[in-house]
Amino acid sequence: MTTRRMLGTAAALLAALVCLLSPRTGTAAGDGEEGAEKPGHIFVDTVTIEGLERTEPYVVRRELIVEEGETASVDSIEESVQRVRNTGLFRKVRYELVDVQTTKVLPEGVRAAALQISVDEKWTTLPIFSFNRGGGTYRLIVGAFDDNLLGHYIGVGGQYERLGEANSFYGWLYHPRMFGQRLRGGIDVGTQNRGYTLYDADGEVDGGFLLNRFTVGTYLRKEWLWWFRTQLSLRYVNDDFSYNRLSPTIEELQRERGLPPESHATIMSLSAMLGRIDQDNYLLDGTQFSVSLSHANENLGSTHTYTKLLAGVSHFETLPLNSNLAARLAAGTGDIDAIQHRFFLGGLDTVRGFANDRFAGEHYWLANLEYRIPSLDTRWVVLQHVVFADASGISTEFSNLAKLTGASTGIGLRFIVPKIQGFIARIDYALPLYGDITNPISLGGGQFY
User: Fold this and answer.
1) Count of H helices and E strands in the chain?
2) Measured between alpha carbons, how far apart are the two ends of the chain, in Å?
3) H or E element in which residue 11 lies
4) Which residues form the Bacterial surface antigen (D15) domain (predicted)?
């Protein structure tokens, strides 16, 4: 697929999604006409916030789209509270409108009330310890992070990662509300060392290499409307390759063809996200589409010229008994010669039950579906049971993209501590639907997606 065709496809997909998600009548919650005195509106006399221990009050007030001494719709108040939930800093966020007396003359149908917001804060200054096992390999991550640095809703962190026999280090810093706006900016730097195993068309091991990568990147993400965000990213990568930490069999097979050449790239990416996933404790709700176009060019100093187009949709729905339906569809295509920039799918984080990086190519699609339901649901502990199905197709030829390459189904268990930010332990057991399952058990931290 040529770069021109990919650009045309991205533009058409983005236009279709804008039409799909744009409000058809009226305005979105929180975007109502300013000053409209409609029946059922509230004159917000005061705003109080209860339950803050570490977080500065302005962090919560900055999320609100209603102000003291102003009239607001109930929809605007609910949107404000949902924005506080979506920061991820609180286990629970609830609000109450308490009628008050006021000397202000109010239009007919408008009542005066105090907006009382109560929160239950999470612990956000935390060590990182994650162990994932799946696809015949494992990933160990150790570090520390804080998504609410000194109570100011700024994220900082660093980690050591061991993937198989390879070691990596990362550090990051981000600000979700730069200049007091809904503008997120961040930087990260690190070394990524990762072993790849290559397979032939019959699924037999055909070689492999250790990728040694240095990377530094930055991004800006702007929320234009509650349902529309764009992101501009710039990343530099420098890649080197070696036979280190390969098994004798894989090393012998790879030496017959040699290692990929050392390379570097400056990658520019433009993304758009439509829709929103709302968060309430461990439950998620909503739909989000995303489209991303990335490009590296020899004329701008990169070793290779290539283009990638990625698209995806995630849907979460809260059902009775605090259960959650979670679905993910993703696809990607590219004009890619450098093997390390191709798409790799496998059991560690995409299709459970298969060897890690089992499937590789320049074009892919991926589908995941989970139903999650808790048997224990308390303030401190949630035990969540999962039924899942995964499927994928990947090819070096775009014309073969519809072909199914791997599919699995199975059951899993999640151990969640709601008061601790991001504390989710996961175990899954996969059974084959299509293809040969080689690693049925998958362990990890966090939800699979």
Assistant:
1) 4, 22
2) 28
3) helix 3-21
4) 151-433
Do residues 408 and 353 lie in contact, with contact meaning Cβ atoms separated by under 8 Å? yes
Residues of the chain with CATH 3.10.20.310: 32-121
Q: Name 237's bridge partners.
A: 215, 265
What mean pLDDT, rounded, does the chain reach?
90
Q: What are phi and psi of 179, to 5 degrees?
A: 60, 25
User: CA 309, CA 98: separation in Å to the nearest integer?
Assistant: 50
* Structural tokens at position 89: 């800093």
Report helix, strand or coil for 354.
coil
Distance CA 225, CA 31 (A): 9
Whether residue 439 contacts residue 136, with contact meaning beta carbons closer than 8 Å, is answered with: yes
The predicted structure's pLDDT at residue 134: 67
15 phi-psi bin (left φ>0, alpha ψ -120 to 50, beta other): alpha
Concatenate the DSSP letters of all residues of 97-139 into one string.
EEE---SS---TT-EEEEEEEEEEEPB-EEEEEEEEEETTEEE
Where in the sequence of the chain do the CATH 2.40.160.50 domains occur? 3-17+122-445
For 24-43, what is each residue's pLDDT tens digit? 333 333 333 334 444 479 99
Domain 32-121: which topology? Ubiquitin-like (UB roll) (3.10.20)
Statement: 3-17+122-445 belongs to CATH 3.30.70.1350: no
In this structure, are residues 164 and 195 in contact, taking their beta carbons and an 8 Å threshold? yes
- Residue appearing with tokens 């530094």: 216
Tell me the H-state helices in 190-348.
248-255
Report mean pLDDT in 10-residue bins for the chain, 449 residues: 49 45 36 43 97 97 97 96 97 97 92 97 88 76 95 98 89 97 98 91 90 98 97 98 92 95 97 97 97 96 95 98 98 92 90 91 97 97 98 93 94 96 92 90 90
